[in-house]
Amino acid sequence: MQINPQEIVDLLTQTPLFSNLPPGTLNQLAGVMTLKTIRKGDLIFAVGDSAEVMFLIFEGEVALEIPKKDLESGFAQLRRGDLFGEEALLFDDPRYYQALAQRECVLLSLAVDDFMALWSQLPGIEQKLEILIQSRELSSVNALAWLQGDEYVHVMTRRHPAVLWGKLALPISLGILTLVGSLLLQFAWLPDRPYGWLILGVGLPLILIWLAWRIIDWRNDYFIVTNKRVVMIEKVALVYESRQEAPLRTIMSVGIQRSRVGAVLGFADVVVTTYVGTIRLRDLAKAETIASLIESYWHRAKAFNRREESRLMSEVLADKLELPGEDKRESPSVQGLAGDAPSREEAREPGFFAWLFSDFIRLRYESDSAIVYRKHWFMLVEKTWLPGLLLALGLAVLAARLGGRLAFVPMMQGVVATLFFMFVVFVWVIYQYADWRNDVFKVTLEQIIDLDRKPLGKIRRRSAPLENVLSIEYERQGFWGFLFNFGTVTITVGNMELTFDHVYNPSEVQQDIFYRMGERLEHLRQFEIDSERERVSEWIASYHRKARDLDGFEPDPSPE
């Protein structure tokens, strides 16, 4: 197959790794690339092969997989303009994944020797390669269930390691103080007492758990750029999950903000502004390079959208004109407005205890594309402190009577009465917990829902469409609200107000609602575009049919 060299240069210009290079360098790079045709189903390289070449897809589709126990676990489906095998340009480690041609492919290969010969003319290429290689490794070992079928990761990174060390500073300091203090207490101050060993035995495991939790918390936060969107994922283990995202096509600008500490330690925030909202990718190493990559993928997505719009218009016209050899296309009215998520079968209702303790203490989580919030733990403590105190009192009385104290209380009657009292109080605690977990606030793809449900009692449900929201406000009231960062989010819809009461981090809740509003409005806008495409194509098709009819029309000769 013969390819015009200018076509290769054009493709390199659209490839984020090379998009900022000057034209002369791009021409030289195109000149050293080798063309290779791969048949459908052929293996391009396997796990363990030596890494000597990077590939760029000119045409076709390539799947990247990691074989696991007779199964291929695919983590990316790459298409025109995507590259793979880029780790060969910096490292000589064997391949840790395999590449398989999903369709007949035309690939451009770049050998390591040719790349190194041009190294001096490739400014900034090393940092980009490091980010892309690290992203490939992270995406291959982290399952991202929310990715769509044709979506794959380009960039995936975490916060700068300095942020982790900042989180570890306090537990490490307390650990050192606990270790030194307990040893001094045991060997110098009170050697005849076991207090030092007691403090060490209790304090040190707690601090180690704290350290492990901090590390997991840091590792759970990711910043991702796919071929469709920019995503920020924040997780606090067992407590909080947040995913903020914006489609690449909605980006308006990409900027950098750096603090004084960040300037010293080498990290900064990447601020992605969209007409859906603003996503701040915090404390990133190589922030300038990541921002440059986001801009490149953004411009590439815009070019792809224009090509896709042209393709869709051609398909619609072909369908309207009933041209042969074209696939029929589903009309937008069938697609609906519910989003792109595939339909799922109704889940089986869980049992009582499975329901009661599912998402046991999480204050924010996502379920079936809906963001779910609960009231802050402080409200649970406020509901349960009295029955908890009575339960502890009953336990103390029971222990005292079984231990020979309170002899004036008959043994059998006292134990039975105390156990019955404790059972009643325990049911009270469970009731208050169920009442707390039943009050939820949801933000779905289409609406906002405020759900209040009493255990074994009444249910109150209020909802409003996202597109009808007029304003969103939040406030933190009182000492405890400021101390524990909870408050009330008020959503105004017409002459009605919905309130999310006592939710954790109300500013983030407000931002979540703004994002969902933007996504909903964008979806409605896209639906209008699809409908307009249908109308325009119908007009063109009608004109074409009319013109065709007129061409075949022969008027009767006029009588003389």
Question: Could you please describe the fold and organization of this structure?
Answer:
The protein is an alpha+beta fold and about 550 residues long. The protein folds into 4 domains: about 1-125, Jelly Rolls, CATH 2.60.120.10; about 160-220; about 310-335 and about 515-550; about 355-515, Pleckstrin-homology domain (PH domain)/Phosphotyrosine-binding domain (PTB) (PH-domain like). The chain is built from 14 helices and 23 strands. A 5-stranded antiparallel beta sheet has the order 16-17-18-19-20. A hairpin with a 3-residue loop joins β18 (about 440-445) and β19 (about 445-455). α8 packs parallel to α14 (about 505-550) and α11 packs antiparallel against α12 (about 410-440). The protein starts with a helix and ends in a 9-residue tail after the last helix. Mean pLDDT is about 85; it is low at about 325-350 and about 350-355.
Secondary-structure blueprint of this entry?
Layout: H1 5-13, H2 23-32, E1 34-38, E2 43-45, E3 53-59, E4 62-68, E5 71-78, E6 83-84, E7 98-101, E8 105-111, H3 112-117, H4 125-141, E9 153-157, H5 161-189, H6 195-219, E10 222-226, E11 229-236, E12 240-247, E13 251-257, H7 260-265, E14 267-274, E15 278-285, H8 287-321, H9 332-335, H10 352-357, E16 364-367, E17 370-374, H11 377-402, H12 411-438, E18 440-443, E19 447-453, E20 459-465, E21 469-475, H13 478-484, E22 486-493, E23 496-504, H14 506-551
Antiparallel strand pairs: 1-8, 2-7, 3-6, 3-8, 4-5, 4-7, 9-10, 10-11, 11-12, 13-14, 14-15, 16-17, 17-18, 18-19, 19-20, 21-22, 22-23
Helix pairs in contact: 1-2, 5-6, 8-14, 11-12
